[in-house]
Amino acid sequence: MKQEIFDGLAEAVVSGDTEKAEKFAKEVISNGLDAYEAIMDGCSKGMGIVSQRYEAGEMYVPEILCSAEAMNVAIEILKPHIKADPAVSPKKVVLGVTKGDVHEIGKNLVKLLMEAAGFKVIDLGRDVSTETFVETVKREDADICAMSALMTTSMIFMPETIKQVKKVKPDIITMVGGGPLSPDVAENYGADGYAKDAATAVKIAKKLVGDI
Ligand code: B12
Fold first, then answer.
1. Domain check: are 70 and 107 in the same one?
2. CATH classification at residue 13
3. What is the domain extent for residue 48?
4. What is the pTM of this model?
5. Closest ligand 1 atom, residue 101 Cα
6. Which of the residues 6, 88, 105, 196 has the least number of beta carbons within 10 Å of its own beta carbon?
7. What is the pLDDT of residues 61-101, one digit of tens each?
8. 103-140 pLDDT, tens per residue?
9. How many CB atoms lie within 10 A of CB 19?
């Protein structure tokens, strides 16, 4: 039954069906299933399929936006039921999508799971300049500066931002992620951490702040 509900959720995201997304998200709760697992194995899995279909030319922009909307509907229902991790000390994360880039679905998932893990996330949104990252890290005395980029034209701002935030806060932990990134690119950029998905991002963040 659990798998059927998670598959239903993934399918609702793929087909951009907000009513189904709502129905399956409510079933997750009424059946006492784990909300975090439902987001990963349902919503996020569905969004992964959407990305693949778009790449294959089988889905187009309006459909993608419907999928994102369906995912948001489900997440709003599931979010209050995620069990926050009390083991983690409330470290501050400044998170944003780099300059010129409006892709925010992945960044929002990273935010959601980081908050669920007990981090305090300051979300700068999308199209964030190096200056804004630097000012916020300084003002908030952040522990982690996390950047997301989905385009080759926006990932190029990461190395300079890393350099600048390290100048104002030498012990800041920097993390990068998003489609065009890889462990090699992240290392070349001088980032302390990289993750291919939101769940791994949380694991790496916890490790880097010394909580596991
Ligand atoms: C959805 C989407 C859009 C939506 C975005 C909606 C929104 N509100 O976010 C819309 C339709 C608006 C859009 C617009 C455009 N898009 Co677009 N889009 C996509 C698509 C299909 C899916 C991206 C997505 O949401 N994936 C699902 C999420 C869950 O995955 P994710 O973002 O990778 O995030 C996960 C991980 O990467 C990781 N992660 C993400 N961030 C971070 C951060 C940290 C710190 C860590 C550790 C981990 C991490 O965790 C996330 C969750 O597991 C991709 C194709 C693809 N395969 O990625 C193209 C894609 C990214 N788009 C592309 C392009 C070119 C554009 C446009 C320029 C198109 C155009 N010609 O107008 C515009 C860009 C406008 C702009 N200035 O940004 C290209 C980029 C090419 C490139 N390499 O540069 C892609 C790759 C498609 C392609 N092959 O051409 N797009």
1. no
2. 1.10.1240.10
3. 2-81
4. 0.93
5. 78
6. 196
7. 999 999 999 999 999 999 999 887 665 568 999 999 999 99
8. 999 999 999 889 888 899 999 999 999 999 999 999 99
9. 10
